[in-house]
Amino acid sequence: MLINVTENIDKLVIQFPGGMGELNSYLFKGENGYTVVDTGVYSEQAIETWKQFLASGITIEKVVLTHTHQDHIGLAKWFQEQIHVPVIVSKSGYEEMKLNCRPQLEEEFKALLLAHGAPGIPEKMRNQSFIYDFEPDGFFENHEQIKLGNDTYETIWTPGHAPDHFCFYNREKKLMVIGDHVLKDISPVIGLWNGKEDNPLREYFPSLAIMHDYPTDIALPGHGELIYHLSDRARELEIRHQQRLAQVLELVQNEGKTAYEVCMEFYGTLNIIIYLSPFMSCLTRLIYLESIGKVHREEVNGKFLFRANKVVVEA
């Protein structure tokens, strides 16, 4: 079941229905057992995979999370309660956990979608607030040292894809665990999943730039294949985002549009079940463009319309 990455690191691909469909869980060998980084979503399929793996007699020392999106934290509570393994998260991740447990989350998330022209929450989206309802066993903050297996890694806060996203870097081995911060073949979704309007793309660009400060021979992403040229890939993502921003700006040059209308034009007609990620990408681009003075918004009939600001040409 394990795919060897380096001498002391293995990868276990956890498959599950919906979403990305699978997650790379990394296992770091240590004297007291494996450190697991990220778990997969809470699903029968994912639980069965872990049960089969654990049946081989493997010992898990602890679980460490890069961030608290459902596909990364989903089985952390299960590990803690059923396997009796401690779970370590960032302090900002703990704050996100509490946000995702609040009773009004679904109502606020729906209000955010409706305010930006979207039809609401797809009916098949399950409420999984229960996966966040536990107390972690330990915490870390930015630029601290954390043991993964027998090796020590620096924790690097990289907000954007998630407010609480962290990477883990071993300078001696030039190896970085990058979660969903950078992916090899696709661009990570920059969204607003906790129901709060913020400007995550503004945070993502500096987080991408940070990658140039950490010489990395091999990067371990949360999805897809390993990355061997991390700095180059980070630069590609930044260029791609700038291109997308220009395209979104062009769509609101002549009239005000909701983020949902921009999404439908940008990506074409989307099934209501799968529209959320493309919609979030468009919404966060519009919010970013607004923050740098490229567009403005006005509220019409309870919905926000974005329109490009006129360029003033001085004589």
From TrEMBL:
InterPro entries, per database record: Metallo-B-lactamas (IPR001279), RibonucZ/Hydroxyglut_hydro (IPR036866), Sec-metab_biosynth-thioest (IPR050662)
Residue ranges of coiled coil: none
Occurrences of domain Metallo-beta-lactamase (ranges): 22-223
Superkingdom, natural source: Bacteria
Pfam families hit by this protein: Lactamase_B
Name of this protein: Metallo-beta-lactamase domain-containing protein
Species per Swiss-Prot/TrEMBL record: Oceanobacillus arenosus
